[in-house]
Write a structure and sequence with these properties.
The chain has helices at residues 38-42, 48-53, 74-91, 100-103, 110-129, 158-177, 200-221, 245-254, 267-272, 277-286, 313-325, 347-374, 376-384, 391-399, 402-411, 423-431, and strands at 32-33, 36-37, 44-47, 95-99, 134-139, 182-185, 191-192, 226-229, 239-240, 261-266, 290-295, 334-336. The protein folds into two domains: 32-374, TIM Barrel, CATH 3.20.20; 387-431, no CATH class. α6 (158-177) runs parallel beside α7. By secondary structure, the chain is an alpha/beta fold. Mg(2+) 2 binds at residues 266, 269, 305, 307. Keywords: Carbohydrate metabolism, Cytoplasm, Isomerase, Magnesium, Metal-binding, Xylose metabolism. Mg(2+) 1 binds at residues 230, 266, 294, 337. Its EC number is 5.3.1.5. InterPro entries: Xyl_isomerase-like_sf, Xylose_isom_bac, Xylose_isomerase.
Length: 434
């Protein structure tokens, strides 16, 4: 045991009446909702990068956190792992997620970095033997190092493409060894700053080929998890190729990957794309492409990715409404891609941030389940589209031509009047639950 969390003990559920700031007030992992426990529904994961690797900087200032594991030595990487698993156990978190650079020191070359990664994976295996926490997904950081300043799989330099391929292989191997349930690719710099030096068509083809290599390797090693890609519209690149859910789905179809790859959607990225989180989830579920989610929030007065812990129950409820409506998570889950504010320095703050996020998600999911069980929204939706169930309209959609439909409009004197969408009534219905 380390002394980072001091005398803090395992966080317990005490209910909404408790005034204990270090207790769950809404997340009771054993509570049964729609036939499953909240723990099984939500499948919470802790993000290694924000919770343990982030130093508290922002675009205008550097490090504010002073953590005893900061440094490039393997001994500090192992101390970081010790503290991480202590947090997992304190929160009863069923899963965690990591990038390669979060968990191991950077080597002087790829071989040394690979050796460092394999050593820390060995250490993770030891830690996981005595912990209930499993790996939700692993990924490779191919955006922080200067070698990736012009992208990874889309880089104009073939050597960078090769380095990226080797990096992903190493991270897939690590994820497979640790029993990860998914593998995520986020193209933080797969995009462009200016079209003056960019061949979009060639870069997209390279990205598509790269992802096909990933899928081929998944099957070669027998990895049973899901390959996920994560949309984001901008930041750090001016324009990223994985702009939003719809863009990614189109990309996957173009390169024949729609049956192999699903999406990992993030609340903050949805906001940057000009969407709501529920929109992105609904787009993905409509095509059976939702894999997992990164739960956080952005500051609506800032134009960048602030990665705050969620605290808006109505937003979260509507997101989980579409997740539950589509059948819930399979290999995916709720990863807290969220970080403390740079003024929140204490170990207790790290625990409190996750408690609040887990409580908000539990409140949101329970509200979503109640809305589904009530059936009011679904009944209104069915009523709005009910005329499409009539035989004449089914036939029009399946067999109609512009000529035959025009003849019908003239023959039956069709002259439709607008019908109310009843948005206010539906919003009032939602407010009964949130």
């Amino acid at each position: 045991m380390t002394d980072f969390f001091g005398s803090l003990s395992k966080i317990k559920y005490e209910g909404p009446e408790s005034d204990n700031p270090l207790a769950f007030h809404h997340y009771n992992p054993d509570e049964i909702v729609m036939g499953k426990s909240l723990k099984e529904h939500l499948r919470f994961a802790i993000a290694y990068w924000h919770s343990f690797a982030w130093e508290g900087g922002d675009p205008f200032g550097g490090r504010t956190f002073d953590r005893p594991w900061f440094g490039d030595e393997m001994s500090k990487a192992k101390l970081k792992a010790d503290v991480a698993f202590e947090l997992f156990d304190l929160l009863g978190a069923p899963y965690f997620c990591f990038h390669d650079v979060d968990v191991r020191p950077e080597g002087k070359n790829f071989a040394e970095s690979l050796s460092n990664l394999n050593e820390i994976v060995d250490y993770f295996e030891e830690k996981m033997e005595s912990s209930e926490t499993k790996l939700l997904w692993g990924t490779a950081n191919m955006f922080s190092n200067r070698r990736f300043m012009s992208g990874a799989s889309t880089n104009p330099d073939p050597d960078v493409f090769a380095y990226a391929a080797a990096t992903v292989k190493s991270c897939m191997d690590a994820t497979h060894r640790l029993g990860g349930q998914n593998y995520v690719l986020w193209g933080g710099r797969e995009g462009y700053e200016t079209l003056l030096n960019t061949d979009i068509g060639q870069e997209l083809d390279h990205m598509g080929r790269f992802l096909n290599m990933v899928v081929d390797y998944k099957h070669k090693i027998g990895f049973k998890g899901t390959i996920l890609v994560e949309p984001k519209p901008q930041e750090p690149s001016k324009h990223q190729y994985d702009f939003d859910a719809a863009t990614c789905i189109g990309f996957l179809r173009k390169y024949g990957l729609e049956g192999e790859v699903k999406l990992n959607l993030e609340q903050g990225h949805a906001i940057l794309a000009g969407h709501s989180f529920e929109h992105e989830i609904a787009v993905a579920t409509a095509d059976n492409m939702l894999g997992s989610i990164d739960m956080n929030r952005n500051d609506y007065q800032s134009g960048w990715d602030t990665d705050q812990f969620p605290n808006n129950t109505p937003e979260v409820a509507l997101a989980y409404y579409h997740i539950l409506k589509s059948g819930g998570f399979t290999t995916g889950g709720t990863n807290f891609d969220a970080k403390l504010r740079r003024q929140s320095l204490d170990a207790e703050d790290l625990v409190a941030g996750h408690i609040g996020g887990m409580d908000i998600c539990a409140r949101g999911l329970k509200a979503a389940a109640a809305m589904l069980e009530d059936g009011g929204l679904e009944a209104a939706l069915k009523e709005r589209y009910a005329d499409w169930d009539k035989d004449v309209n089914k036939d029009m959609l399946a067999n109609g031509t512009l000529e035959s439909i025009s003849e019908r409009v003239l023959k039956d004197d069709i002259n439709p009047e607008p019908r109310s969408g009843k948005q206010e009534k539906l919003e009032n219905l939602v407010n009964r639950f949130v």
